[in-house]
User: Fold this.
Amino acid sequence: MSGVLALPIIDSPVMWIIYALAVAVTITLCVREMNRKWVLRAVIGVAAGALLGFLIYLGGNALDLFGVDLPGPVGVWAALTLAGIGLAVASFPDAKPWRKLVASVAILAYVLAGATGINALYGLNPTLGSVFGIVEEDQITLPEFNADNRQAPTQPLATTWKPPADMPAAGTRGSAPIPGTESGFVARDAGIYLPPAALVQDAPALPVVIMMMGYVGNPDPTIISGVLDEFAAQHNGLAPIVIVADQLGGQGDVDPACADSAKFGNAETYVTTDVVNWANANLNIIQDPKYWTIAGYSNGGGCAAKYGAKDPGTFKNIISVSGEQHPGSEDSDAVTTDIYGGDSAAFEASKPISIMQAAPPGTYAGMTAVFTAGSEDPAFVSMATTISNETKSVGMNTTLFIVQGADHGGTAVTGGLAEGFTILFPILGLTAGT
Assistant:
């Protein structure tokens, strides 16, 4: 079962097999003795399904049911999926048993094809397991290290590091349980990425990134590891060590709004205390906050902005990729009630902008913040612009970057992370000559 869940489903044989199955059952349903009654029923089923799918797409955008505007191709996939289901349903009456079986299989095939197509558009769930909230990463073996050698370097690491001949060409990723020792928060195993330089004997202490993905989402290190492997290939194997932490808990289907609460658990304490303490105890990382980055995508981006604003003594760098302006922005009323017990003032005070405005002058000196969003994702471009302006006003070295042609999916994540690390690599001492 584990191997099945780990199967890649984006630009993979599995994806094309699913599409081929959908085409095959369509041909089978249509190749039959034609009569007016069947043709009329099939045309009505296909047309009604396509219309319903497109109306769901339009209604979802109009009512903001998904928190973001879904791009046009999602509407096409919704229409095609329900059109296929309409054809399958129209095939049941007056059909032989084997045709009814094919029609039943067709419904499943169309649902799988539609889900696969939409998932490929967004590029956020690379495996079959991740679609269902199950990240099938093997438990990672963490290299041993000497904790006494983790002091901050006196000069950029890139100027002193000489990669050994046996250094791997790429990093490795896996998972690790991080217990909620202080918070009591029940989290899924974190994703871990170790760059090539971390996998050699006498490896140097490296910078660290704590990353959080979106809601609904998984602590999957696939995307960020792919981005950082490209950077490592250009910088003698150097890149940060990454923890993709689970800020959602459970099955990732609730939103604790990056806060501690009686209803959803102490998500904030988990990330800012338990994950931080685990990183210090278990990873060969530089412990100076200058080399620590808090990062996130979408929901996780809102968390990153909040935690960076609230704890600049731990995190000197922020990357928010298509991030919410503040945690809970999708449903402020529910968050006020569920997380803050109806205290709207407490909710307001929890927002990153409010935290920064209340901080003493000079609090954010020496911090770097990168905010990104896709050009085809206007709501999140607006949010990124607003919060980046505020971080700039309180003294952070701030960059706002728009990923051209990207919406709220995978291209926005890879493009945003690539820009973020382009800016941070010199600051983290991972680029020669800095």
Observations:
- The chain is about 45% helix and 10% strand.
- The chain has a mean pLDDT of 91.
